[in-house]
């Protein structure tokens, strides 16, 4: 379980393309401190398992299904990535509940800078739009953000200087893909209401 509060901006140092998967080596001095084989680390919002750990780098295998459903397949050597370790029991929940299970990908459509913040418009897959509401939470590349405006096929977020400086969203340009994870609470509510409606119809 994660919170969407990015701990550091890491870097891809190697990519090995296999038949039905890819193996990434990533540098992240903060998240690798004390890391062990089998630990989880979120990479651009995708929960990955540490396969090997040496110094300030770790490797993780990414299966074909994950490559298909996320933007990790577009990563190359030198790509910057958002990194976060799982939330410790008893720690503050600074963002919102993030599972590291990407629901789909969007695309940066527009950036509108202002003096103290920047508005970023991101495309939204049709099957996810019902989960995104104004002032609700959404995870973009592993970053817990508040939705400013929610349209039928897009949403906007407002980014403060800290987010721009310390995450990938400070560098993403129109056309770049991003990983999206909607609020898991919304999905549970939908399922429960659907089950209740089906029960009432019997």
Automatic annotation (TrEMBL):
Checking InterPro entries in the record gives: ATP_synth_asu-like_sf (IPR023366), Lumazine-bd (IPR001783), Lumazine-bd_dom (IPR026017), Riboflavin_synthase-like_b-brl (IPR017938)
Q: Which UniProt keywords apply?
A: Repeat, Riboflavin biosynthesis, Transferase
Q: Where are the Lumazine-binding repeats?
A: 1-96, 97-193
Query: Any keyword NAD?
Result: no
Top-rank EC class of the record's enzyme: transferase
Annotated catalysed reactions: 2 6,7-dimethyl-8-(1-D-ribityl)lumazine + H(+) = 5-amino-6-(D-ribitylamino)uracil + riboflavin
Which residues belong to any copy of the Lumazine-binding domain? Answer: 1-96, 97-193
Where on the tree of life does the source sit, at the highest rank?
A: Bacteria
Which pathway does it serve? Cofactor biosynthesis; riboflavin biosynthesis; riboflavin from 2-hydroxy-3-oxobutyl phosphate and 5-amino-6-(D-ribitylamino)uracil: step 2/2
Q: What is its EC number?
A: 2.5.1.9
Name the PANTHER family on file.
Answer: RIBOFLAVIN SYNTHASE, RIBOFLAVIN SYNTHASE ALPHA CHAIN
* Described function: Catalyzes the dismutation of two molecules of 6,7-dimethyl-8-ribityllumazine, resulting in the formation of riboflavin and 5-amino-6-(D-ribitylamino)uracil.
Specify the protein name: Riboflavin synthase
Species lineage = Bacteria, Bacillati, Actinomycetota, Actinomycetes, Kitasatosporales
């Amino acid at each position: 379980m994660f919170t969407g509060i990015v701990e550091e901006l890491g870097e891809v140092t190697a990519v090995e393309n296999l038949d039905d998967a890819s193996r990434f080596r990533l540098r992240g001095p903060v998240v690798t401190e004390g890391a062990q084989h089998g630990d989880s680390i979120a990479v651009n919002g995708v929960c990955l398992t540490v396969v090997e750990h040496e110094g300030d780098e770790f490797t993780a295998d990414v299966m074909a299904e994950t490559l298909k459903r996320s933007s990790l397949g577009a990563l190359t050597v030198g790509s910057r990535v958002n990194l976060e370790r799982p939330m410790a029991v008893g720690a503050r929940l600074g963002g919102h509940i993030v599972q590291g299970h990407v629901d789909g990908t969007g695309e940066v459509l527009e950036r509108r800078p202002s003096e103290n913040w920047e508005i970023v418009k991101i495309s939204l897959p049709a099957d996810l739009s019902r989960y995104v509401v104004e002032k609700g939470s959404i995870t973009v590349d592993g970053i817990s953000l508040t939705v400013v405006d929610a349209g039928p096929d897009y949403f906007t977020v407002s980014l403060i200087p800290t987010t721009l400086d310390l995450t990938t969203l400070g560098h993403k340009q129109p056309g770049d893909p991003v990983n999206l994870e909607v609020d898991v609470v919304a999905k549970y509510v939908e399922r429960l209401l659907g089950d209740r409606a089906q029960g009432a119809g019997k």
